[in-house]
Amino acid sequence: MSDFAFNHQWPSTDFSFFMSTLARSVALVGRPNVGKSRLFNRLAGKRISIVHDQPGVTRDLITANVPADRGGYLLMDTGGLGLPDSAATAAIVEATEEQVDFAIAAAGLVIFVTDARAGRKAGDEQIAERLRRSRKPTILVANKADDAHWETAAQSEFTSLGFKNFLMISAEHGNGMDGLHSKILQMLGPLEEEELPVAVEEERIKFALIGRPNVGKSSLGNALLKDKRLIVSETPGTTRDSIEINFDYAAPDGKKWLFTLQDTAGLRPRTAVKTPVEFFSQNRSHEAIAQSDVVFLVLDALEGVTKQDKVLAGEVLKQGRGLVIVVNKWDYARKRFEDKPLPGYATEKEFQHSFLKAVQRQLFFIPDSPIIFTSATEGLAVTDILKEAHAVHTAMRTPLATGLLNRVLQGHFEVNPPKRIGGKRFKCYYAVQVARQPFCVRMYCNSAEKLDDGYARHLAAGVQTAFRLRGCPMKFDLIGKPQRTEGSKFTAPPKGTKGGKGGRNFSPGRNKRMPPMAEG
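RESULT FIELD:
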């Protein structure tokens, strides 16, 4: 039996299963660039989908739960049907259309979005025929009807498509939205009593998959969901929006863990971001980091740790999120050992241990983060991602008992005292936890300036070990004497990396080469 229990499951090809299971759901469909994403954001009441004039910006299926006071339904934004060859590869077009097929099959109501300014196109007629065959209740919407001229043209052009329910709106300016809200509620009907919110759902652990383009984030997401929910392509930049999906996991102890998965666009160096769409995608990915409880940094086993991976790890710690490292595509290493062992390594296990040590050297500043070796395509250790998400999230909520905290710190000061700076050594008189997520420890000390970043990381590692806080970043808030000088030190990124304090540039392990396949 599967150890997963999803809120929603769907087969990859036959969508007839959904003809009645998601009755209170609304899907937006239409050609590319007719304004579906802007309308989605209007109906959802917040900015979720990226809005841009470039066709094909939305590719994955984006969902949002519209609250009960606005109708109480699941809203789905889909990729445009009929993407031109210049906008995407054939594989992406096929995957996008499969997502649209699912949305139509799953929806209790379809909103067919057209462009009043562009007028009726052949693509609109093809979609209309597709919807008539589905026999789903449909509202035909002529979007971008910003003035009387467009309204008159749309009235004559689109009514001949034969849909009884026809409205003209402007999602950009909000014109006609009240009428659309009313029509949606009329066609969905009132919320049943059992559908009304009666209790607050148990908190979900929100985690994000981040990394450079094409390291396999969407493939890992699909492996976790056990379905082709996210579009996967070898073309870098396939994922544009940050996708949120709720799902449940049946833990080994019989308990149910609730998760929200965020799949993000591949994060490039800022100098490599060339288009507005890439800019907004990158911003969404950074927002996903800030909104997550735990972040999984996905590395490519064929490339190891790169400079951009170090930057991303620093960004996660700067935001104070829990951090876990995932080495994806480990099946390639296995296959190489099946043919012939790599020079210098007798077994795959020996090579994996060497690879792990190399990753730890390159990312020496991370807070003892767990490192998972996985393969999305083969399902290797995929559930370990959920187990570590739960473990790190639980650790992030651990209270740091003041007595033990001070004993741990004092023990480190005695065994390995800090070096003298300006003739004086850093001294801590008293420490207390003042915040968590991220952890913040306030230390009353002789001088805030006497604690260097390297020793701060040493102290943080000691606290993390004592309280079992693997993957949990820590911040020290320093209160100096005799003058009350306040300063904060994150123990996370070293100086010279993104998220650090700047200044001199550390070059850890410069001459320590990673094993084959791990060198970045």
